[in-house]
Structures are given as structure tokens and as C-alpha cells.
Amino acid sequence: MTYKKRLDGREIDEPRKIECKVGIVPRADGSAMFRFGDTIAIAAVYGPKELHPKHLENPEGGLLRCYYNMLSFSVSDRIRPGPSRRSSEISLITKESLAPVLQLEGFPNKVVDVHIEILQANAGTRCAGINAASMALAHAGIPMTDLVAAVSVGKIGDAVVVDLTKEEEDYEENGKKAATDIPVAFLLRSGKLSLLQADGKIPPEDMKKAIEMAQKACIKIGEEQKKALKALK
Q1: What is the mean pLDDT of residues 139-159?
Q2: Torsion over CA of 95, 96, 102 and 103, rounded to 10 degrees?
Q3: Taking Cα atoms as reference points, which of 151, 174, 122, 173 lies closest to residue 220?
Q4: Which CATH architecture does the domain made up of 18-230 adopt?
Q5: I want to staple 66 with a disulfide (CB 3.0 to 4.6 A). Which of 94, 134, 171, 177 is the partner?
Q6: Computed from CA positions of residues 97, 103, 105, 107, in that sequence, does the dihedral angle turn out positive or negative?
Q7: What span, in angstroms and rounded, lies between the C-alpha atoms of 161 and 157?
Q8: What is residue 30's predicted lDDT score, i.e. its pLDDT?
Q9: What is the mean pLDDT of residues 143-163?
């Protein structure tokens, strides 16, 4: 079946409405909010600071730690509070997505902690979290070579689309799931990928198209990230 008209009326290459701000957690060293439509993520950065336990210290540079968490009221069906296998996985993915742009060599034996809270969820939460974390790290003054921008792309039926909603992720044809979700993150200046995952099957030619669409969307996201950072100056 052809998927021509998106359920919320957007064009296939159009992300949801983007909103972002920095400096929203006064006691953090850096903080940011990033919003894709109904999905809202807040990130707070603490550090560089003393690392505990001491056996994790690295004399050659600082350590990055990321903590991703969906608040229990972020979805209509209340989720159990606290760490889960999914949150641990996304925490690691977030760290790996951000690590290539950080320059922590000047902070031996220190740690930078990034806490990401999802206030409201309608798909794309890991991407919103990465976007918020990238901005929060820049706001904290952590040395960075680039910003990181992330978005989900995917195939619904026979159409490749940008920034899936939960309804689109759950899209079915003939009683079977007909959507593939692909979170992607790019380093904005270099254009290099720092995240590429796929939940579902997609032909190589469609994967290539999806990545190209994701990069264009990430450029738009990056423009909004930069505007928010410059607004504080």
C-alpha cells in the first residue's frame, strides 16, 4: 500500500515543529531543552568535576557519562520509574554519539555527567535527548569540535519519511507492522555520522535515501541549536 499522506499532514521530508532553549536549569553547569512536536527532552551537564569511584580515573583525559531517563508521566501509559534495560542502552548510545566532538584531554581524572530527562514522549526521544545534550555541553563551555544533531527517519509502507511520530512507528498494513525506524546523528561541520540504528528492514537504496534526508533535516536542527546558543550571548 502506498503511504502518500502523513497522518499529521507533514511533508515526507519535514520534521515536526522544533523548539530549543539553553540555560533552563540554573544550578547546572550547562543545560538545554529540545522539542520535536510533542516530544520534549531536557539535558543538564555537571562538570568537569571529581570522578568517583577513583579507580575509573583516566590520567590522559576526562570521562563522559550520560544518563537517559523517561519520566513516569511522559507517556499516556505510566511507566515504571528508574533505570531500565532500554534507558541503559540509550544512555550508552547517547554517549557514543557525543564522544567524537568532545575534547576532554585537558581534564585528566575528571568526569562530565550529562543527565537527560524526557518530559513528554511521542517517538524520537533518543534523538531529542542527543540534541538537548549537545546544546547543554556547548552551554557548559565543554571544549567541542562540533555540534551533534539527531533525527529519526524511516520507511512507512513504501515511503521514506523524516521524524516519525509514535503513530507512524506503529503503522500497520494487513495486520502487520509496516514501519522501520532509523535514529541518525550527524556531526554538523564535518557531516560525519555518529549514530545509525535501524529497527526493522529497509532495502539498501531506501537506506541511502533515508540517510540523505536525515542529513538535510539535521542541518535544519543544527541551525535551531545555534540560534538558541547565540541568543544567550
Answers
A1: 95
A2: 110
A3: 151
A4: 2-Layer Sandwich (3.30)
A5: 94
A6: negative
A7: 10
A8: 98
A9: 94
Q: Cα–Cα distance between 206 and 170 in angstroms, integer? A: 19
- Taking the domains of the chain in order of start, what are their residue ranges? 18-230
Average pLDDT of the chain to the nearest whole number: 91
Give residue 76's pLDDT.
Answer: 52
Question: What's the rounded Cα separation, in Å, for the pair 207 and 212?
Answer: 9
Residue count (the chain)? 233
Higher pLDDT, 209 or 75: 209
Q: Measured between alpha carbons, how far is residue 59 from residues 25, 62, 101, 137 in Å?
A: 30, 8, 20, 22
Which residue from 216, 156, 159, 146 is spatially nearest to 184, judged by alpha carbons? 216
How do residues 12-66 score in pLDDT, each as one tens digit? 999 999 999 999 999 999 999 999 999 999 999 999 999 988 888 889 899 999 9
Distance CA 73, CA 181 (A): 24
